[in-house]
Amino acid sequence: MAQPRLELHELLTQLVANVYFQPPSDYMMQFPCIIYSRDGDLAKHADNELYQHAKRYQVTVIDRDPDTEIADKVRDLRYCSFERFFAEDDLNHYVFSLFF
Questions:
Q1: How many CB atoms lie within 10 A of CB 8?
Q2: What contacts 24+ positions apart, CB below 8 Å, involve 38-42?
Q3: Domain holding 40: CATH number?
Q4: pLDDT at 6
Q5: pLDDT tens digits for range 4-62
Q6: What's the angle, vertex CA 39, arms to CA 58 and CA 94, rounded to 5?
């Protein structure tokens, strides 16, 4: 059985070539890119049993283009929601929450 995080990584590489999972702060990234990391999870219970569980990831699209289509493609993923936008060092950051 494939690991869900690796499946997510493969899905994100279909949107952009440069995808990084929890890169170190001194890592030289290529732009445009997607950075993602574990951010929490969702667990629903009924009758003292777990019946639904999903891992939550923070997914950030970073691009020099303020009108990047990559952010639109990420937003269109199932169980994804836009959280915030910010610009820093002439790069545009689009931050999403994604349950996968």
A1: 19
A2: 39/97, 42/99
A3: 3.30.2000.30
A4: 94
A5: 899 999 999 999 999 999 998 888 999 999 999 999 887 777 788 877 778 999 999 99
A6: 15
Question: DSSP string covering the chain, please?
Answer: ---HHHHHHHHHHTT-S-EEES--TT----SSEEEEEEEEEEEEEETTEEEEEEEEEEEEEEES-TT-HHHHHHHTSTTEEEEEEEEETTEEEEEEEEE-
Domains contained in the chain, number? 1
* Structural domain boundaries, residue 57: 4-22+29-99
User: For tokens 């289509």, what's the residue?
Assistant: 69
Nearest to 61 by CA among 52, 77, 53, 72: 72
Task: State residue 1's pLDDT score.
Answer: 46
